[in-house]
Amino acid sequence: MDRFAALNLPHGEKLVALTFDLCENAGEISGYDGEIIDTLRRLGAKATFFPSGKWLLDHKERAQQLLADPLFQVGSHSWTSHRNFRLLSQEDVKADLALDLKADAKVRETLHARACYRPAFSQQSDLDHATLFRFPFGTCNADSLSAVNDTGLLAIQWDVVSGDPAPAQSAEAIRRGGCCERQARFHYRYARKRKEGGTRPGSFAFTC
Predict the structure, then answer these.
(1) For residue 73, which phi and psi values (nearest 5 degrees)?
(2) I need a surface site. Which of 12, 76, 91, 159 has the fewest CB within 10 A?
(3) What is the CATH number of domain 17-157?
(4) Is the dihedral of CA 53, 65, 106, 204 positive or negative?
(5) CA quadruple 49, 159, 207, 22: dihedral positive or negative?
(6) pTM of the shown model
């Protein structure tokens, strides 16, 4: 059965999954916000990053640092981040995934070949491939979900859009799970509907 990941917590346990998309499209080089990474490390906060394959190749050193950090898990976010898998043919989806996973494997191989690398830096860094996937825009259909699962990847969506890309967004609004409606519509068709309850135990918080 084709699957998305779900998070079910014991009653009374208050945990939220922090996830970050590292997006990069064709013809551009995106940045790297080291202050966010430093803050996560200082607080000992675990997080999952979903880089595009192009981002991995354009930020090889940063990618290897994330992979080697036991606090972090690195998944997959397609080759160039913003192709709508719901609208692509199955052949195009498979071709995109192949490029993406080839880039992921190349970065991991480079990390493993470094003289300073030691196995078990972190459980996920020793893997030779990603295990998690986030759909660009959060959109898919049955065929694209099946194609992702066929590669061994488990799809991860979200139910809270933090709104971090908006400079005027307050910490309190992020805590409530709020984002501007324009961002909600852009990133996820029903994000506005799903955020009404705000951030809650078991939420997947999305930041790009």
Answers:
(1) -120, 140
(2) 12
(3) 3.20.20.370
(4) negative
(5) positive
(6) 0.78
Rounded Cα distance between 75 and 93, Å, is 17
pLDDT-based confidence at 129, cuts 50/70/90?
Answer: confident
Among 196, 101, 203, 191, smallest CA distance to 137 is for 191
Distance CA 169, CA 188 (A): 18
Q: Within 13 Å, how many C-alpha atoms sit on residue 101's CB side?
A: 20
Residue for token digits 């397609």?
78
* % the chain with pLDDT above 70: 68
Q: How many residues does the chain have?
A: 208
The two counts, helices (H) then strands (E), for the chain are 8, 7
Residue 108's Cβ-count burial label (10 Å; 0-12, 13-18, 19+) is buried
pLDDT at position 196 over 50: no
Burial track 110-119 (b if 16+ CB lie within 10 A, e otherwise): ebeeeeeeee
Which residues, at least 6 apart from 11, have a Cβ–Cβ distance to it below 8 Å?
none
